Amino acid sequence: MIKKVADKILEYGDLTTEIKRTRNVEMKMIPVITRETATISKPFIKHSKNAPAEHKVKELQKTAILGTAYILWKVLM
Question: Where are the domains of the chain?
Answer without folding.
Answer: 2-76
